Predict the structure of GDP-L-fucose synthase.
Amino acid sequence: ERPAFRTVRILVTGGSGLLGKAIEHVVTKQGGARDGEEWIFLSSKDANLTDLAQTRAIFEKHRPTHVIHLAAKVGGLYLHMKENLQFWRDNIRINDNVLHTAHEMNINRVVSCLSSCIFPDKTTYPIDETMIHNGPPHESNYGYSYAKRMIDVQNRGYRSQYGRKYTAVIPTNVFGPYDNFNKENGHVLSALINKTHTAKVEGSPLQVWGSGKPLRQFIYSLDIARLIIWVLREYEEVSPIILSVGEDDEISIKEAVEKIAETLEFKGEIVYDTTKSDGQIKKTASNAKLRSLLPDFEFTPFPQALKETCDWFLNNYDIARR
């Protein structure tokens, strides 16, 4: 057990994003913090993490004992297709600056966040944690995907060379309050919530990009937040862990669109624009490792999580990122 006088200071990069806000909600509003824990949430306004000097300065200022690294340069499918090099360079810089500064400051525990888009494009399903380097990722966002995969490589280096407990989580498709609801660059579910709301207000048809056929495992941000906190405290491996609902909970974009329309009471026409790219058709992930370690974890049912997200969007329409 830790001596009671040693404060645990947990620094969360990307603290103003979807997952950062979810963790903040869990620790401040749902009693997720433990006694003696101090939580610090950084946003891009506090420091530009692509800059090493700024990264060092913010770490010096807060002197964390633990880090949850969520910060990344992110965008929607179409922005990634245009700017793969920029996504690679920015994310490689951010990750190297955060991990190496943590190491230099003798921080022994860092949990970083990967993404399900890092999975090999050509693979067998379901994908598990041992398979993430088994082939190239989907070409649409290879820059971002390879940069994220390198966190796993770097974590293994810090473990083998210095004995650090640096690891990473791989969430599947996250959604929830505080997401980016931008119609072009937001996460798919949140972009669709915004599009559906606009179509309802304007009395116009709902235009969905792509065929609606791709399958996704959607997971509520507050569930992921609780799981990341568990990983920080309990998970001992360097190898990443997939945080996801089960394979049986995978749904198509079309099913998600219909559920959003029902939740927002949109009664108009839904049109699928098949001239637009679908991205990956599926990227089914296994949560067997998570289940073996945490068999009793209860995920928020999709309809309830979707309703809470839609309610948040409508109640915070003026401040929501869109």
User: Anything to note?
Assistant: The first strand starts at residue 8 and ends at 13.
